[in-house]
Amino acid sequence: RWQKIFMFPLWSKMAVFWNKMFLTIIVLLIVLFLDAVREVRKYSSVHVNEKAANVNSSAFDHIQMKLFRSQRNLYLSGFSLFLWLVLRRTVTLLTQLAKEMASHAALETQVNDATEAAKKYMAENKRLQEALSGLSGKGDGKKKETADATEEKLKEEVEQLKAELQKTSNAFHKAKTEVAAVRKQSEGLRREYDNLMKEYEQLQQSLNKAEDKKDL
Predict the structure, then answer these.
(1) How far is CA 173 from CA 81, 107, 117, 180, in A?
(2) What is the pLDDT of residue 31?
(3) Which of 89, 88, 154, 81 is nearest to 118 (CA)?
(4) What is the dihedral of CA 107, 111, 114, 115, to 10 degrees?
(5) pTM above the 0.70 mark?
(6) Could you tell me which of 96, 91, 94 has the C-alpha nearest to residue 178?
(7) Phi and psi for 179 in degrees, rounded to 5?
(8) CA 141 to the chain's CA centroid
(9) SS (H, E, C) the chain
(10) How far, in Å, CA of 24 to CA of 100, rounded?
């Protein structure tokens, strides 16, 4: 189902501009984050100076409101930047996992084909051996030599098929191990993403409570 979804022509068109769009959003988030840091430092110093100067309450509340909004923007831009990087990493891991699964399926098919071919040649070799064992001792020597040469050729082909089967089996196990490693890494990243989302929700709730108290 997911393969059918990701095979839409729309995604192939967007993939051309995906890296540019990603870098553009990263630059934008970095600019917003640096601007929020500058605003926090600016209003923090003004907040301390105004508090020490004992100015009227309306001006002090206005500065405090500006400081709160700049801190909120700092948290939002910082978490957005971090979560966007996590999303990028998640997409990369999912892509690698899909490729490994596809190669895993191809290797499995190749192993099955090689196994069937090896069984076929072994059965044919066995049949020829039985036919050769049934020949009488008075048979023609030329026919025996031809049968021996055929038998040797079949043995060589069986050995080659066994070697290819072993090679394919090793590649299959290697791909299976890589798929398991990528899947484990993807699950760890997903758990980390869930924890970050929970922390982000808690921080957002605390900011909302602080803003409600400020409005009161």
Answers:
(1) 38, 9, 20, 11
(2) 92
(3) 154
(4) -170
(5) no
(6) 96
(7) -65, -40
(8) 64
(9) CHHHHHCCHHHHHHHHHHHHHHHHHHHHHHHHHHHHHHHHHHHHHHHHHHHHHCCCHHHHHHHHHHHHHHHHHHHHHHHHHHHHHHHHHHHHHHHHHHHHHHHHHHHHHHHHHHHHHHHHHHHHHHHHHHHHHCCCCCCCHHHHHHHHHHHHHHHHHHHHHHHHHHHHHHHHHHHHHHHHHHHHHHHHHHHHHHHHHHHHHHHHHHHHHHHHHHHC
(10) 30
Radius of gyration for the chain, computed over Cα atoms and rounded to the nearest angstrom: 35
CB 174 within 8 A of CB 124: no
Alpha-carbon span 103 to 175, nearest angstrom: 7
Residue found under tokens 């997903």: 190
Side chain identity at 97, as an amino acid letter?
L
Domain extents in the chain: 2-117+160-215
Structure tokens at 51: 């508090």
Q: What is the mean pLDDT of each run of 10 residues along the chain (216 residues)?
A: 70 76 88 90 72 62 83 89 87 81 80 80 77 57 63 78 78 77 77 76 73 60
